[in-house]
Design goal:
Helix 1 packs antiparallel against helix 2, helix 6 packs antiparallel against helix 8 and helix 10 crosses helix 12. This protein starts with a helix and ends with a helix. It has a three-stranded antiparallel β-sheet, with no helix packed on it. A two-stranded antiparallel sheet has the order 4-5. The protein has two domains: 84 residues, DNA polymerase, domain 1 (Orthogonal Bundle), CATH 1.10.150; 171 residues, hpI Integrase, Chain A. It is mainly α. It is built from twelve helices and five strands.
Length: 289
């Protein structure tokens, strides 16, 4: 295993110089590969084209999470490709390996009643305007804090925002959000407003919006652990529950792939089933009564 340890040092140096990876990423690669080499030594496993599949079995026996296995596999595959390209090995440990599918966790969402309670707990025009835009348009927090005043068209009920990769999209805003924004702008006037939401002519920060959301959550008395992004998830889920087209929701959210948006259909079905079960329980209770 000495040769693997030696070339691991060369490999990490290569990633640093040629790939410009962060120190955290380099550290993760090194730890994953070192653990694999240590396993080979302890178990006296031959380093051949079958060893990686054996290692994945070991990780499964240890109860490693799906995301951890995928990360380990990515680190090792990259290392083995480096060894093969540089003619250090003449076999391919990746030959019989298929990357496991990453299990995506369903997003946490608020019910319509919980959303109503959220709005009732807003104490000032800023609170209401921020929550109205997060929930009413599905904006990401980064899009909200960077929303330029010139990109706001209250007359026609639309806003223009820059999403991931500076991708521009136009999003409609409803009458409640328009009313909330007008009240906020009246309450917090500015001679030169560059951003819609700003304090002392500086845009709100993501941390500010996060704290604002947590403060309102505490005022609702809800026990759920939510973030500003939960309002975006709730926006998408409620649209689909009310019959919105999947492609339309994709455009509103600014998703590159409809596959990402499809995740909300599973959340929507989950909520419909929960509502059905609740209705059935109430019906049975009344029937027995």
């Amino acid at each position: 295993m000495l040769i693997l340890k030696q070339y691991l040092t060369f490999y990490i140096d290569y990633l640093y110089r040629e790939k410009s990876l962060s120190s955290n990423t380099l550290s993760s690669y090194q730890i994953d590969i070192e653990q694999f080499i240590k396993w080979l030594e302890i178990e006296d496993i031959i380093f051949d084209k079958y060893c990686l599949s054996k290692y994945l079995v070991q990780l499964a026996k240890l109860g490693k999470k799906n995301a951890t296995v995928i990360r380990n596999l990515s680190s090792l595959k990259s290392f083995f490709n480096y060894l093969k390209i540089n003619n250090i090995i003449n076999f391919d440990p990746n030959e019989f390996i298929q990357t496991p599918r990453k299990i995506r966790k369903l997003p946490n969402v608020l019910s319509q009643d919980e959303i109503d309670l959220f709005f009732l707990s807003c104490k000032n025009p800023l609170d209401t305007a921020v929550i109205e835009l997060l929930y009413g348009t599905g904006l990401r927090v980064s899009e909200l804090v960077n929303l330029k005043y010139d990109y706001l068209d209250l007359k026609h009920g639309i806003i223009k925002c820059l999403g991931k990769g500076s991708k521009e999209r136009v999003v409609p805003i409803g009458k409640h959000a328009i009313k909330a924004i007008k009240l906020y702008l009246k309450e917090f006037p500015s001679n030169h407003r560059e951003y819609v939401f700003e304090i002392n002519q500086k845009p709100l920060t993501r941390i500010f919006v996060w704290k604002l959301t947590k403060r309102i959550l505490n005022q609702t008395g809800l026990s759920k652990n939510i973030s500003p992004h939960t309002l975006r998830h709730s926006f998408a889920t409620h649209l689909l529950e009310n019959g919105a087209d999947l492609r339309c929701v994709q455009e509103l959210l600014g998703h590159t792939s409809v596959i990402t948006t499809q995740l909300y259909t599973h959340v929507s079905k989950k909520h419909i089933k929960a509502a059905y079960n609740k209705a059935q329980a109430n019906f049975n209770e009344n029937k027995l009564g």
